[in-house]
Amino acid sequence: MTKISATTRLCASIANPNKATKAPGMHNAGFGMVGADLRYTAFQPELIGAAIAAIQALDFAGVTMSQPFTQDVMAHLDAIDDTARAIGAVNVVHHSGGP
Fold first, then answer.
1. pLDDT tens digits, 75-88
2. Does residue 35 contact residue 2 with C-beta atoms inside 8 Å?
3. Which CATH number is 49's domain given?
4. Peptide bond into 24 cis (omega under 30)
5. How do residues 14-50 score in pLDDT, each as one tens digit?
6. Counting runs of H as helices and runs of E as strands, what totals does the chain give?
7. Whole domain around residue 28: which residue ranges?
8. Residue 79 domain-assigned?
9. Alpha-carbon Rg of the chain, whole angstroms?
10. DSSP state, residue 52
């Protein structure tokens, strides 16, 4: 596994409940296979607005959203693609930088 450094960008699964997710192991294995300087973890926040603010402040590369946040997260995003808007839910949030 590649070392984590100040240049390593984070990705995460955001859901509640989320303690049993296998996603970090799968994503980190894939990142290691392709040599990507990324790490994937899981969070179980209570407040999606605070979680999105943290993602922005810590410059995460992006997160995957699951229940109960797929609809409520939309109010906290700068942009939403047409497909997500049409179905009324977001499953992936890409953070392109900036506050």
1. 999 999 999 999 99
2. yes
3. 3.40.50.10860
4. no
5. 999 999 999 999 999 999 999 999 999 999 999 999 9
6. 3, 4
7. 9-94
8. yes
9. 14
10. H
